[in-house]
């Protein structure tokens, strides 16, 4: 099930996306009664997807991201692979949706793309056992962990380098129909202006999804709608004003955003 958050005529709602993504003209949203973090009903009121504006699929209280979770990515930046998951935060104000513009941060000269699988948490959880990690997952979406690479190199904390406004595009929707075994081996690609930049699989992660949830919930409570970014494969690189960057994940969809000059 593909659950989207959208706006139409000034109203914001959740809905289930129906149709074949390979045929965009066939896609419609069945508006739901309630929220996706609890039992809900489909209203039967359907709206063509091209008549709505897709928003970030969730509004997380926090985005917890994992750094250097792909060995080749760590190597390409000259970093060692950490012995345990290496976490950092991106604030809720960094989250934007599919199609939203990404203003180039004025304090950076080296903006990089990082295509990632995002895990969306479905219920409040703390100290989750490994064998029950799948129970707290609502679903998965695409993410771009945009990074001011020059700032990341010069500042010990990554708050500015990875937490600036629009640094966390998410979308286009949350796919709930992916089982843990499938999620552990999905293809991830990133293109810039149609040119392939990144190509990897989630099976290349050093620390798997369940292990990440265990590690994070040892320290903090995750809330419904919180997002865990699972790391990026090799191939990260620069973005310029005017570039369109697209993250595609097998079985989920494509998240596309355009880089603009900050006004």
From TrEMBL:
Biological process per Gene Ontology, one example term: carboxylic acid metabolic process
Stored SUPFAM superfamilies: FAH
Designated name of the protein: 2-keto-4-pentenoate hydratase/2-oxohepta-3-ene-1,7-dioic acid hydratase
InterPro entries, per the entry: Fumarylacetoacetase-like_C, Fumarylacetoacetase_C_sf, Rv2993c-like_N
Superkingdom as given in the UniProt entry: Bacteria
UniProt keyword DNA repair, yes or no: no
GO molecular function: acetylpyruvate hydrolase activity; isomerase activity; metal ion binding
Annotated keywords: Metal-binding
Rv2993c-like N-terminal domain: residues covered: 1-57
Record organism: Streptantibioticus cattleyicolor (strain ATCC 35852 / DSM 46488 / JCM 4925 / NBRC 14057 / NRRL 8057) (Streptomyces cattleya)
Keyword hit for Metal-binding: yes
Occurrences of domain Fumarylacetoacetase-like C-terminal (ranges): 62-259
